[in-house]
Amino acid sequence: MSWLEETALLRKILLECELEEEIKWNKPCFTHQGRNICIIQNMNDFLALLFFKGVLLNDPEELLEVQGPNSRSGYRMRFTSPQEVLALTRWIKSFVEQSIKNEKAGRKVELPTHLDYPWELLERFKSDPELKEAFDCLTPGRKRGYILYFSQAKQSTTRARRIAKCRSRIIVGKGMLDR
Q: Does domain 4-104 correspond to CATH entry 3.40.50.1820?
């Protein structure tokens, strides 16, 4: 579905909250003083409004949900009709207000820094110091992306194959999704 009416309603509500609209990741993203607050995501079965630091929001009605099993800070609201958007306007505005206050206060999401490296990657580091050095230079998010990708494979041979396949991207400092 295209969710045109729901998107138009969300945009109107968010712009009333004095957010600026930009296009990021090919989606309408709403910022406050250059800081990302939320983004509208078109899904097949629903429209989502993702709050980048949703984990910090007070949500007594439990309207926000974790985006996926590996998400750590972004929480989203789901909509399937214009009526749903209108019914939740008060909460949307509340979450935006809280998000702006959190940004002004400099609140950060505390993310765990420990990563569980798969055994196959540690073994590869022993025989390929160039890969280890390049991997150590990656940003925390890029490291996490690779580790999640490698670790999702059930078999050791698949994990080793994935590591070998990604080597050239790691060496040049690129993440899983970088072009």
A: no
